[in-house]
Amino acid sequence: MGAKADQTKAVILAAARERFAESGYEAATIRAIAADANIDPSMVMRYFGNKEQLFAAAAEFDLRFPDLSDLPPSELGAAMVSHFLARWEDDDALVVLLRSATTNADAAQRMADIFAGQLLPAISKLVPDDAPRRAGLIATQVLGMALCRFVLRIPPVAAMSRAELVAWLGPTLQRYATEDVS
Q: Domain residue spans in the chain?
């Protein structure tokens, strides 16, 4: 694929992310995304095939989850909250996916796959015996915070600084990652 095709794909993906984030999966249309990208709808179809494939490309997301095994256990919670906030703030693909996951089963499955495929292995390095449950609980907090801060924009949560969110959520993720709850 040439440079012009790569540029066209990038423009389409940017428009798709914005449209999916604004409208959700169900309401977003190929025609509206093409209009936002200022191209013919046939070009969207040419590069992505259909709405589902376009959504999959627009919602592709790498958590870039760091190796936490070198951190002192007392710093794990804060490190995880800081990392997740940085990822949500730096790339709107997760917001697109989260907004769409509330109304679309495919988007919900994609979100679950991202967290299972990327968070679970990182937590497995820390607590191999109980990683699925712990990673699931960490996901509840991270996704709940993201829904309230980036999608619903609940004023107190949206207004909090990163440091405040780390201070509030860090201990909870810390407990999920390290404490024995027998």
A: 3-58, 73-178
